[in-house]
Input
Amino acid sequence: MTTAARDGIAVITIDNPPVNALGPTSIAPLLEALGAAQRDASVTAIVLHGANGTFSGGADMKGFGVTPPPRPNTRDFIEGLEASAKPIVAALEGNVLGGGLEVALGCDYRVAAPSARMAFPEIKRGLLPGAGGTQRAPRLIGIKESLAMILSGDPVDAKRAKAIGLVDELAEGDVVEAAIAFARTLAGKPRRRISDTNATPDDAALDEARRRAQPAERGGLAEQRAIDCVADATTVPFAEGLVRERDRFVELLGSEQSKARLHIFFAEREAAKPPEGAPPPSHAVRTATIVGSGTMGGGIAMACANAGIAVTVVDLKPELLERARGIMSGNYAATVKKGRLTEAEMNARLGRISYATSLDAAADVDLAIEAVFEEMDIKKDVFRQLDRIAKPGTLLASNTSTLDIDAIAAVTSRPQDVVGLHFFSPANVMRLLEIVRGSRSSPETIARALAFAKQIGKVGVVAGNCDGFIGNRMLHQYFREAAFLMEEGAPPQQIDRVIKNFGFAMGPFATGDLAGLDVGWRIRKGRNAIAPPVGRYSRVADVLCEMGRFGQKTGAGYYRYEPGDRTPIPDPVVDEITERVAREDGITRRTVSDNEILKRCLYPLVNEAAKELDEGIASRPGDIDVVWIYGYGFPVWRGGPLRWADSIGIATIVDDMREFERAHGSNWTPAPLLVELAETGGTFGTWKARSKAHA
Output
């Protein structure tokens, strides 16, 4: 914290790097400075701003869940601001998030730099604004706009904030100077406290919010409580509204949903840390080449262009490049039509994408990403050429989802520069980027890959090199059991319903139809040609593919689909095929309970994850949870498969697996780590702490 006097204006600075977090050690001196400004007769008004180009990233989350909560806290600071006899102007720039925005609302006026981004991100942690945000925002910007900000957690820029009344003025130059000039006009004027005003009722906005919100039992507890708080702003006195807000905040803080979301928040932070000892990248990626113009190549190119990277898409066939150009242009145009992008922004992004029919386009780039057909020989050929063409130091990456990164790197003279960058489709939308570490990938290469993930707005997670890496290796177990359950008597719609009720957007069979059954079929045929499957193997998917039933794109897969409609319709043909295959393979069909379906689909995820931790494929349980939240749609309010396993109890899972092992064989043998945790009363959370202690 620093304080300066400027011709009767006291300038108080929030100075707690890196994000000016609000906690006891940063708030105490701010309250002292506020008191000093009150006592100084020469001070007529106060300006509050943040050091180093950011106002405040919000409350220090290290204090969350501590009983009693550490003092002074954000609420204490806001009470101090409102108790001031002199007007206060907040000078906003950079991030103004959560508690930081609530502090700004505790001031009389707000002047914002064009760079300012304001948000209430608490909903993404399973919480709600707990320092008066649900009471002050409706009084300032109305019920509808308050609900939009609080329930989405997304930021608004300074221009939008001015339009909705969240800020009073936009600064053309230095925001502090603009705030000082504004403060000088307030000398002798009475305070303008938001808490002294009334919120205008808007039942229509509240009803619409309740209609759109998730039910409390399906992860929407924070949404429901936040709507209740905003509604209170129009029906109860301000002081009572604060009490109710605090009570609900405390309720949410103790809820499993919030604990799960906070787990993912901190796990995401851990996953982003570069390898110990790796130097930071000397510069961000400025230029990139994408080899392959298919769905993945085009999506990756858009992700790069969206981040300001000049990118060249390479394909040997000009007609394929033209097709890719048309698809990308169409995608951007659709985004413009939805109002999420301006035409100027679309043109700028399209202008960053160029096209070439020769790999010579990779000669002088920072990053080359191979996104060709998922066959080893094709990928090796691309990397041989990249090794010859690309300049020294170019990051060479494969977008493979399953193949051996070491085998790919081995055909180059620089395996230390080779890494897997497994994007998820659509690559310009999905947030996960699985960074696959080869045995010879250097720490610098991994650090550069993590920095690139952040640069393009992805959540990067480092995985070891194995078949399927972290996510797809687990996914194989999930789909396998779903197929077995179908053969044993559970129809696809029952299995999908159980998984959807658990919190996934869709079940395994609807997912397969959406992705295309031919993709997995091609991979299975390749694997089976090398090594025939050992043990039980479900043939249903292969039979469907042999019939040309590839899912939505052919109008039939596990379900059938009407033209132009993606609604899955149960198909008796699939039932007949399943019954015939089961009969031929000697499988006795029966009625399968929903409870068995849930356990048999999800426990294999936990078991395979335990093996990955033991083998070092995943470094932390949190990494696995992050992969499954952002890449596979595991419900975030359950915290990922391992956080969920801890909530069930590892011993319970192992006991159930022993029963399944007796009925279904060695696929159900619990992993050694799982047995160890069960026998010692441990959890994946404690394993994480223990592994750190031994590091």
Summary: The first helix runs from residue 24 to 39. Residues 651 and 681 are 7 Å apart (CA to CA).
